[in-house]
Design brief:
Two copies of one chain form a homodimer. By secondary structure, chain A is an alpha+beta fold. Chain A is built from ten helices and 21 strands. In chain A, the strands form four sheets. In chain A, strands 10, 11, 12, 13, 14, 15, 16, 18 and 20 form a nine-stranded antiparallel sheet that branches. A five-stranded parallel sheet of chain A has the order 3-2-1-4-5, with helices on both faces. A four-stranded antiparallel sheet of chain A has the order 6-9-7-8, covered by helices on one side.
Chain lengths: 375, 375
């Protein structure tokens, strides 16, 4: 049996390992927290720091293949492992581009991949030279995640909120909608694409409300998005699973927001809604099997279960029973012991032929279900 | 989090644990072989003997709920655990009836559940008193599994092949087809039923060829089968998952062959083909959540991957790549290190609106895929 490792033991690792059990593969996970969602679902768990060269190298050197759950891993160790013959998904070269927001944006510009206008800033002072880009978003080059390391700068008075460190200042896009495309790339550079996903935001809360697959897009916008995603993925030149998040602006221009070189939240519906899920697909790639079928069996929606504001502590899933009574929903609780405000604690997938049914249930689930701390 | 244990660590445990990772539950497995298919997918693995009172009792006493993967477990320990407040699925009382073929047949007779004519035999000599039942099938009362402990006795010359131990002699049924019904029973005795499954046999090899869900049955036969299964399950009076295997004879009589008080091979298609799989459903029951939806999303077929005759040793999956190229199939390899003749090594599920597509691919998979020993 091939030996395959995952750096990081959160929900992505958990769902990867659920899918791994369909294949002959010996699984390894490394993560600091021995109680993390994926720790008990692998053959071999290693307590370690995924940002440490030594930990990643020692973990990886006996493996046939290794993948990541999060971008903030030790790149140099992965480069050394690759040089020594371990297959790394994504390649360290692709990860190097993506894990740094400056390099990622420069990569888009170099390859003429449409993306929002931007400048690179090295400290707060330089922001004053780029007032013409405002309103803009300031993004730290490294270490941002789940909204951290991102600051909206609407006008010059907000400049002090920016980062006094290497960062990208991106002109705000007049967004009509946000979409995500998940792509699978085999070891022989064959590409398969999942149907685009609508990431629907709650304007009032400025939070992701739910996701819909396939996205509702005019044919021409869909073609544009697919062409851009394929161009991007070909330029990245790495096997693995990739999520390309894009903005569609008011003029139906498609602009790449950012790329994740790994399984992604916007692809979770694929577990039940697609023939080969993004998790199944990554194992096919890592085990060098043929790519699977990315078609939807049925249209789907996802609602993320996020830790409630003002709640920290052992998690309680209010409304879970009501949701489990619905006849076409699939609940995924990630098994995190503690909830925190904004923490991803689970998701619910709905599948249905009827778009109205998807939207009705997505809204109902959002109203019914809450992840709170034990009182 | 509730603590739930499984006695046995084979493929049923493996698939149960894949499903468990959608819920907040702490999982425990006990099995002799620390390399078994389920050992690495639980929070806590205990090396132990599921037939030993002491091992089962010690394993179970700290749990909230416990279930079984196989009938041959220590019943007395489960009875003690139940008396001490551990929830046991199925109840020890139901398991006691089912795990002994004599008690099982007497239970059917007592509850007027249609089943083949039979007598109880305590040794080989008594067989001669029941020649009128021949051709018949002789079944050991305890310990039979996967065809072991079962002997066809066509005429009196075959009597010496029978069992010189407590057994059941069952008159052979003139079988038109074999079907299986999977039922879920909640803690409050609510019952949900999956669509009947056709167990299609290869007459030439006398082996299960493939399974089809929903089964092709005249409406009246389906109603009869469902009524019998519900009567049986109500009489068993236990929460859990149950598979009722039935014969349909040439006159469209429906006769119960046997019942399994657990997740069952004939329900594996439910993972991809149903909204709530049999594995998902057992967790809902054990965690006291509402029952799920047993409807098929699409019709399905299953092909079992069985160790080839004359092959023992480290398993090789010939034809796996070809099967993985098919666009609506799902491969499940159970991760058993060694193949043996007749050993269940995996299964492949096909889902499709078109029955012809199901049958065509089932036959293709049977031709393409073989589980052999490393040369």
């Amino acid at each position: 049996m091939k030996k395959a490792g995952i750096l990081g033991g959160g929900q992505l690792g958990r769902m990867l390992l659920q899918a791994a059990a369909n294949y002959p593969v010996e699984t390894y996970v490394m993560e600091k927290d021995a109680d993390c969602p994926a720790a008990h679902l692998c053959h071999h768990f290693t307590k370690g720091d995924i940002t440490s060269f030594e930990d990643v190298y020692q973990f990886g050197k006996a493996l046939d293949a290794i993948t990541i759950e999060i971008e903030s891993v030790n790149l140099e160790a992965l480069e050394k492992l690759e040089a020594e013959g371990v297959k790394v998904y994504p390649t360290p070269a692709a990860l190097k581009i993506i894990k740094n927001k400056i390099r990622q944006k420069e990569f888009y510009r170099h390859h003429e991949i449409p993306t929002s206008d931007f400048v690179i800033t090295h400290n707060l002072e330089t922001l004053n030279e780029h007032l013409h880009l405002l309103p803009a978003v300031h993004k730290l080059s490294e270490g941002g995640y789940d909204g951290k390391g991102v600051q909206v700068i609407n006008d010059s008075t907000a400049i002090p909120l920016g980062f006094n460190a290497p960062a990208v200042l991106e002109k705000q896009v007049n967004i009509k909608k946000e979409i995500s495309l998940i792509l699978a790339v085999s070891n022989t550079a064959e590409i398969k694409m999942y149907a685009p996903v609508d990431m629907v935001f709650d304007q009032r809360l400025n939070l992701l409300s739910h996701q819909l697959s396939p996205a509702e897009l005019p044919e021409k916008v869909e073609w544009k998005a697919e062409a851009i995603a394929i161009k991007l993925i070909k330029a990245l030149n790495s096997p693995g699973i990739f999520a390309v998040e894009m903005f569609v602006d008011q003029n139906d221009n498609v602009l790449v927001n950012e790329t994740a070189p790994r399984v992604h939240n916007s692809g979770h519906h694929s577990i039940e809604a697609c023939y080969s899920s993004q998790f199944d697909m990554l194992w096919r790639i890592m085990l060098n099997y043929p790519l699977g079928n990315t078609d939807n069996i049925l249209p789907a929606a996802i609602v993320n279960l996020i830790g409630e504001e003002g709640n920290s502590g052992p998690a309680v899933y209010t409304g879970l029973e009501e949701v489990l009574k619905m006849d076409n929903v699939f609940v995924h609780i990630y098994g995190k012991k503690e909830t925190k405000p904004g923490r991803k604690m689970g998701h619910v997938t709905i599948i249905s032929k009827e778009k109205q049914d998807l939207l009705y249930k997505a809204n109902l689930i959002k109203r019914l279900m809450k992840v709170e701390a034990e009182k």
